[in-house]
Amino acid sequence: MKSIFKIATIVILSAHILACSKKEQLAPGMMDKYYHVKVDGIELPVRVAGKESSDVALIMTHGGPGGSSQVFRLSAGIKNMEKDFKVIYWDQRGSGITQGNPPKSQITTEQFSKDLDAIVEFTKQIVGAKSIFLLGHSWGGGLTAYYLTENVAHQDKLKGYIIVCGAYNVPGGLTASRQWVLNGAAASIALNKDVSYWQKAIEFYKSNTQITADNFVDHATYLGKLNGGRFNKNVKVEKGYLPAFEINAFLNNPFFVGHNITYKGESVYTSLNLTSEIHKIKIPTFVMWGKQDGLLPPHKIPNDVVGTALADDFIANVGTPKEKVFYMEYLNSAHEPMAEEGEKFSKDLKVFLDKFK
Predict the structure, then answer these.
(1) Is 261 within 8 Å of 109 (Cβ atoms)?
(2) What are phi and psi of 121, to 5 degrees?
(3) What is the mean pLDDT of each successive set of 10 residues along the chain, which is 357 residues long?
(4) Which of 266, 291, 340, 346 could bridge 232 with an S-S bond, Cβ 3.0-4.6 Å?
(5) What is the pLDDT of residue 15?
(6) Beta bridge partners of 263
(7) What letter would DSSP give residue 309?
(8) What is the DSSP string of 19-76?
(9) How many domains does the chain have?
(10) Distance set, CA 208 to CA 217, 291, 309 (Å)
(11) Contact (Cβ atoms closer than 8 angstroms) between residue 82 and residue 238
């Protein structure tokens, strides 16, 4: 959701801005091209990078809401995929480096799904990919799950689906996340660690019984203190390239979408729960999750009255034949396994793509 892939990665991007400002020297046979796909008056930026001769494409759908796919390239788990495949990076409307000023009426899950379908068609028709895989991380996992279930014909365009720490049940996931932090606060107090800080956190949650767009940043701050967004601190940041004007757009866009995006006319924070819909997903599916994820916990959290378990619930409900459903849990990762355990992540993902391409 919003802050981990926004607050944390904006800091990372800012810290590495100079390293990312010089254009990369491409190895023979590699490509890095920019396009714009226009949908309903907004030009969505699309970057196609990777092995030029490959007819297999991986479409990256970023988190947020309001993040950017550009930061995927700073993680080894995604950057490594460019060695063997074409990787399609695109930014959702109002997000990342997207140009234009979409009205709030267009900041909806339904519109974003229409945009995603245009990216899939672009990947097929313009990029020329014969085998297309769809990856959704965090909020992107919710968006991609909606895309696959609101019109099951969309699945005919794809070879497989990868959901990474996916926010397909936002209110349930955030309820579990709230309890995850409360459990951590109680444990810290019991150890006489930062007692006043965590007492203040407990008071915050007494006043905020539901996590919404308005209080999410505060929640994410407490979550980060407990390493629930990024568990592995020894992360190598890959070098990448962003033109200066795109960096500026990225840094100026972050909060508009998160505070305005809706599902069926209501904020996604309180309304987007696709648990009852994901039985419609029938294509090969790879579920990838960080065991330490406190933002969207993969398993049931003690004392969580709702009892949401994001990874377990997805696997239990997805309609894909069980022999084509795969699960990988990253023991030393929280919400960003593609960065926290990038080498293993890319190897696992490559096996899945090679198996079903």
Answers:
(1) yes
(2) -65, -40
(3) 42 39 77 94 94 98 90 90 97 87 94 98 97 98 98 98 98 97 98 97 97 94 94 75 58 75 96 98 98 98 95 98 98 96 97 98
(4) 340
(5) 36
(6) 266
(7) -
(8) TTSSPP-PPTTEEEEEEEEEETTEEEEEEEEEETT--EEEEEE--TTT--GGGGGGSH
(9) 1
(10) 12, 26, 21
(11) no
Our measurement of the distance from residue 355's CA atom to the centroid of its chain's CA atoms, rounded to an integer in Å, reads 23
DSSP summary character for residue 101? -
Q: Do the bridges between strand 266-267 and strand 262-263 make them parallel or antiparallel, or are there none, so unpaired?
A: antiparallel
The secondary structure of residue 99, as a DSSP letter, is: B
Determine the structural domain holding residue 76 and report its residue range. Answer: 4-356
Residue 60 tokens, joined: 């990256």
C-beta of residue 168 within 8 angstroms of C-beta of residue 150: no
pLDDT at 242: 60
- Residue 136 pairs with which residues in a beta bridge? 61, 163
Task: Give the CATH number of the domain where residue 199 resides.
Answer: 3.40.50.1820
Query: Which pLDDT score, from 0 to 100, does residue 141 have?
Result: 98
Instruction: Write a three-state SS string for 237-259.
Output: CCCCCCCHHHHHHHHHCHHHHHH
The length of the chain, given as a count of residues: 357
Q: How many CB atoms sit inside 10 A of residue 107's CB? A: 23
Q: Which two tokens stand for residue 11?
A: 């800091």
Kindly report whether the peptide bond that precedes residue 65 is cis, defined as omega within 30 degrees of 0. Answer: yes
| Whole-number pLDDT of residue 26 | 86
H/E segment holding residue 339: helix 337-340
pTM over 0.85: yes
DSSP at 331: T
The count of C-alpha atoms lying within 13 angstroms of the C-alpha of 98, restricted to the half-sphere facing its C-beta, is 30
Best CA proximity match to 312, nearest among 180, 210, 172: 172
